[in-house]
Each structure stands twice: as C-alpha cells, then as structure tokens.
Amino acid sequence: MKIYTRTGDSGETGLFGGQRVPKDDLRVHAYGTTDECNAAVGVARASGLDAGLDALLSEVQNQLFVVGADLATPGEHALVPRVSEAEIAFLEASIDQLEAELAPLRQFILPGGTSAAAHVHLARTICRRAERWVVSLIQHEDEDVNPQILIYLNRLSDFFFVAARAANARAAKPDVPWASPRTASS
C-alpha cells in the first residue's frame, strides 16, 4: 500500500464510504483537529508522564481514533466504531479518580508546570477547537453527526485539565497560578 494516492491533489479527500469532499469541509476540519489533538496527546505521553497517567492517555489516544473514524463516516456503516456512553463514562471515572488526589483548585492556573503537564494543556486547547468544529458541523443542516461525539469532546477537555494538574502533582511541581493584573500590581 503506497502512502501517496494522488487522489487528493485536486483539493478533495475521501470520507469512509467513498464520498468525496473538499479538504476544507467542516467534517474534515472536525476529524483533522481530532487527529491533531491525538498527536498532542502523543507528545504529552513522550514528555515523561508517570505510568498511571500514561496508561490513561494511551486509552484516550485509542478513543480519539474512534472519534475520528466516527466523524469521517457520515451516516451508518457497520464497520466503523462509534463513540458511545462507555467512552464518556471512562472519562468521567478517570476525572473523579484524578480529582480525588488533587488539592482543591482555589485560583485560575496557567498551562505549565512540568513539560508533560504543559503538553496535556496543549492537547486540551486543541480538543476545545475540535469541539468547536463539531458544533459547526452539527449546526450545518445537512450533516449527520453522532451526538455522543460532542459530549465526549466536552468531557475530554475536562479530563485533560485534571490530568495536567495530576501530572504536576505527581511530579511534585505546583500548578502555575495566574497573577491577574490587579493582584500583580497590588
């Protein structure tokens, strides 16, 4: 199988099932940004997370492939896995588990701390962008989108926030507090 096919040279790409769409189609933006998020998770995993967080993020990477496949496949197709309540439940359980080991958040924090935590925060912001693309896709009246995807991405960004805090806590590195201009000059 060759990596190049030449089928996208005219600015179109194929969805699963054969439909051709422009490469700037809302659906392509949505699954492309999901793929970008997955790559950011890979960078975070390569940045020195402990084994527990690495295992959680490994599962998230696999789930993000399901999100991408779901988004790249309009309509019904028996061979394509779909995002379900099970993936959302996994994220919620993971958030609850991680929050139980963290001190309560009493102020806004900036993305940072350890390199791994900063990369997880980056994945969070990319996830939020993917979520915005999915909202646009859903609002497009001709588009069929699994409603579980939007819930999943919303919960995933929360998971990333908590996972970034956990990465800092497990490395004994404090979160970076936001110093608002008012409190900084006082």
Automatic annotation (TrEMBL):
Location in the cell reads: Cytoplasm
Q: Recall the GO molecular function terms of this protein's record.
A: ATP binding; corrinoid adenosyltransferase activity
Q: Which reaction does it catalyse?
A: 2 cob(II)alamin + reduced [electron-transfer flavoprotein] + 2 ATP = 2 adenosylcob(III)alamin + 2 triphosphate + oxidized [electron-transfer flavoprotein] + 3 H(+); 2 cob(II)yrinate a,c diamide + reduced [electron-transfer flavoprotein] + 2 ATP = 2 adenosylcob(III)yrinate a,c-diamide + 2 triphosphate + oxidized [electron-transfer flavoprotein] + 3 H(+)
Q: Which UniProt keywords apply?
A: ATP-binding, Cobalamin biosynthesis, Cytoplasm, Nucleotide-binding, Transferase
Which SUPFAM superfamilies does the protein's record reference?
Answer: Cobalamin adenosyltransferase-like
Q: Which InterPro entries match?
A: CblAdoTrfase-like, CblAdoTrfase-like_sf, PduO-typ
Main localization of the protein described in the UniProt heading: cytoplasm
A GO CC term attached to the entry:
cytoplasm
Matches recorded under Gene3D superfamilies: Cobalamin adenosyltransferase-like
| EC number of the protein | 2.5.1.17
Name used for this protein in its record: Corrinoid adenosyltransferase
Top-level taxonomic group? Bacteria
Record-level GO BP terms: cobalamin biosynthetic process
Residue ranges occupied by any Cobalamin adenosyltransferase-like domain in the UniProt entry: 3-166
> In the UniProt record, does the keyword Ubl conjugation occur?
no
